[in-house]
Design brief:
CATH architecture of the largest domain: Roll
Order of helices and strands: HHHEHHEEHHEHHEHEEEH
Largest sheet: 3 strands, antiparallel
Radius of gyration: 22 Å
Shape: globular
Helix content: 25-40%
Structural class: alpha+beta
CATH class of the largest domain: Alpha Beta
CATH topology of the largest domain: C8orf32 fold
Number of strands: 8
Number of helices: 11
Length: about 300
């Protein structure tokens, strides 16, 4: 019984050693690892490449950047589970995978480049000594949330979109609508009282309460529908939108344009409306200090 108990407790280690031994002495003609393709993508896939991460069709990585690109492509495609294989000639591959799997900050940065409906709430990586890597993704928005938010977005667009307006004016109308129809969720930010889904677009658009994540996701949904390239920028404590307009990248922060006042007045400001980073750095707050090696498009 003791022996059986020991075997059960260390079963994963024994299995790992078994496959490692089996693979080590397997004939070379049988060692070929499966070729992997992304397969179908969902409707929220965005065919955008950025300086930090790019879509890839090559799932046999040669370096750390390739691994980042694989994770981006998988999340961007809307996959819930995906398996790829580290090639034998890339000796440090599993170590790089482990490092990324344990680096929630970098994973969050990668997540900022995908459509909000494909963004993850939780991501987990399994790997073994044969080089097999499996990514498991739990998304923020479930099917019911996506349906309700999408219907609300369409309703708002039918109400406020005007084809005669240029893109900047369309963005201004969205900016104004979201701010005028939601309030900052101070109870959640200050007291950790959770009454609303304020960290995502459901809270902002359907419940009228938002944190920075709710403002930013909401704006991203409209920008995507307008065909405007965008991503989210995050610092240690804040997130906002980066918007590509007229061949320039701009910062757009609805949270700070919807200030919380002592008398609870609902203000609408434009201090953070489509401003370049040079101006952003002159404003008197410390929540916009972002990693310029990640968000290179707005790092000037």
């Amino acid at each position: 019984m003791i022996t059986l108990g020991i075997c059960y407790s260390f079963r994963s280690d024994f299995i790992d050693l078994y496959y490692k031994y089996l693979y080590q002495y397997m004939p070379m003609n049988l060692k070929q690892k499966p070729k992997v393709s992304l397969g179908n993508t969902n409707e929220y896939f965005r065919d955008y490449n950025f300086k930090f991460v790019q879509n890839t069709k090559d799932f046999s990585p040669d370096n750390k950047q390739d691994i980042y690109n694989i994770y981006y492509s998988v999340i961007n495609a809307g996959k819930k589970n995906f398996t790829f294989y580290c090639p034998d000639e890339y000796e440090g591959c599993i170590d790089e995978v482990k490092a990324l799997a344990n680096d929630q900050t970098t994973l969050s940065h990668i997540n900022n480049y995908v459509h909000p409906f494909n963004g993850f709430k939780h991501i987990e990586t399994e790997y073994d000594s044969t080089g097999k890597v499996t990514i498991h993704i739990q998304r923020v928005y479930n099917d019911e949330m996506i349906s309700k938010v999408s219907n609300k977005v369409k309703e708002i667009e039918d109400e406020i979109f005007d084809e005669s307006l240029n893109k900047q004016d369309q963005i201004r109308k969205i900016h104004d609508y979201i701010i005028n129809n939601s309030v900052y969720d101070s109870d959640r930010s200050d007291n950790n009282i959770v009454n609303f889904e304020s960290d995502n677009a459901y809270g902002a658009l359907l419940e009228g309460h938002a944190l920075c994540g709710g403002y930013t996701d909401s704006m991203a949904l409209f920008l995507n529908d307008l065909g405007i390239k965008n991503f989210k920028v995050s610092s240690d404590s804040h997130v906002w939108n980066a918007v590509f307009l007229n061949n320039q990248w701009y910062n757009l922060d609805l949270t700070w344009d919807d200030p919380v006042t002592p008398d609870k007045r609902n203000l609408l400001e434009y201090n953070y409306f489509l401003i370049q980073t040079e101006k952003l750095k002159t404003l008197s707050d410390n929540q916009h200090n972002f990693n310029t090696e990640v968000y290179k498009e707005v790092a000037f």
